[in-house]
Amino acid sequence: MADAASINLPPGFFFSPTDEELVLHFLFCKASLIPCHPNIIPELHPSQLDPWELNGKVLLSGNQYYFFSKVNENRTTENGYWKEIGITEPIILSTVDKKVGMKKYLVFHIGEAPQGTETNWVMQEYHISSSGFDTALYRSARRRRKHDQSWSKWVLCRVSEKRCEEGVNCYSDDEYESGSELSWLDEFYLRLDDDLEEIAIPN
């Protein structure tokens, strides 16, 4: 586990990468054994810590925590577990319109599966798609990993807590005319459906 003291950014800099940048400049380097500068995102086994214990153990920027993990790593902690919500979102390289990765969503539940209680902690899990890296950089990386079986076994995780004001749901700016309140997760599904309709997925 990385020491928080080793995670430093120059004064005035704020870590706020796009999905595309996370895959291209961080996850790809991690998976292909290419040195990443600055190497500010540490490794972490999700089973070691509950999400509210991440502070000081991983890279924190604003209210978002970043760390690398292995694919299919145990995601059950001492007090709960991370559960996938069944949404997979493609990450498209805008310059060439190619899929370079995908993003899965997980929600932390307190208790034992499958009867756990849903919390407001959300994880975005980034996976790499090697078919989108048809470049000299990818070919060079593939030569480096010739005898390395870890390719594409790394994922990049971004964790945040959806905070709600007392008596107001997390996405209260889009109330329905019927007046019925939806959970933040229901609202998330509805908004994500709208976003996915705008994404052009290449063949």
From TrEMBL:
- This chain belongs to the protein called NAC domain-containing protein
Pfam families from the xrefs? NAM
Q: Give the InterPro entries listed for this entry.
A: NAC-dom (IPR003441), NAC_dom_sf (IPR036093)
NAC domain location: 9-162
* Signal peptide annotation: none
Source domain of life is Eukaryota
Gene Ontology MF terms = DNA binding
Q: Any stretches that span the bilayer, and where are they? A: none
Taxonomic path: Eukaryota, Viridiplantae, Streptophyta, Embryophyta, Tracheophyta
What does the UniProt keyword field contain? Answer: DNA-binding, Nucleus, Transcription, Transcription regulation
